[in-house]
Amino acid sequence: MLQPTFTVVPETIEKNHARLTLEPLEKGYGHTLGVSLRRVLLSSIQGAAVTKVRIDGIQHQFSSLEGMREDIVEFVLNVKQLRFSLEKEDEVVVKLEAKGDKTVTGKDISLPAGVVLANPEQELATLAAKKSLSAEITIARGRGYAPASEQDVSTLGDIPVDASFSPITRVAYKVEATRVGRRTDFDNLIIDIWTDGTIDAKDALEKAAKILVAHFKQIFDPIIVETPEVEPELTPAENEVMRLTVEELDLPTRIANALRKGGYPTVKDLCNADNDSIAKVKNLGEKSVDIVVAALQQKGLDLKKS
Predict the structure, then answer these.
(1) What is the torsional sign of CA 257, 260, 264, 266?
(2) What is the pLDDT of residues 86-106, one digit of tens each?
(3) Which of the following CATH numbers is that of domain 48-70+87-163: 3.10.20.740, 3.30.360.10, 3.30.310.70, 2.170.120.12?
(4) What is 7-45+167-220's CATH number, 3.30.70.380, 2.60.15.10, 3.30.1360.10, 3.30.450.40?
(5) Shortest CA distance to 112 belongs to which of 87, 132, 135?
(6) What is the CA radius of gyration of the chain?
(7) According to the model, what pLDDT value does residue 1 have?
(8) 168 contacts 182 by C-beta, under 8 angstroms
């Protein structure tokens, strides 16, 4: 089996960008790893984003707030640019409070422990003198993109926001030839990763690699997940039969009474029980079970297979 021995070498490390080199790779594996890592980095790394905004005095986004230069749509678009990271919680609500003649930025948001704002300089709105702005911003974890129509909004005044959760803004790679000893056919993968500042680029690369490993492992060492059996939907006529009482099956009175006392008052209850369960009902035996089965079969039904 081919055993990879390449290393990951940081070439450039900046605030929101890193260039990493994977070398040396067997011939052809530069593009193999480059394509797969790029796709996973852009689509599957978990991040946090604004999903809802609630503004005091505003019931919907197609309105304006007195004393604020921007309309509500523009304000929400500015809020969308805020990039948060959450340490533990899956959803957090933060408070924005601002007053007076000023430009409102991310610095005006009160952040609880475990919540970090990567771009506090982001401008949100411009207030006139003696005016105020109060808003609640909901932040949630997720992957990929979630349109506003999918956000759970049940309270009047909540404004859903299109959420882009990915902390990776751009990924580019190139493959160059490199030499190892006398061989000159090795690949050198250079990958550039740009982030929104909420994640380290090298950490993101490692997370992408772990996601790929988990998927590849499922091929040779699969985890089998048992799916529960889904009962087929019944027709209206079948539902009507299921609602019948045991007395309506024309069973002997003794058997019908015993079934009712034993916890089987309807045909549906009987169909969910097996032969052994019915035979254990007080005052019933195997012959009584045969009578019950025959009555059910006349309706096109049967006891549950044990």
Answers:
(1) positive
(2) 988 889 999 999 998 999 999
(3) 2.170.120.12
(4) 3.30.1360.10
(5) 87
(6) 32
(7) 60
(8) no
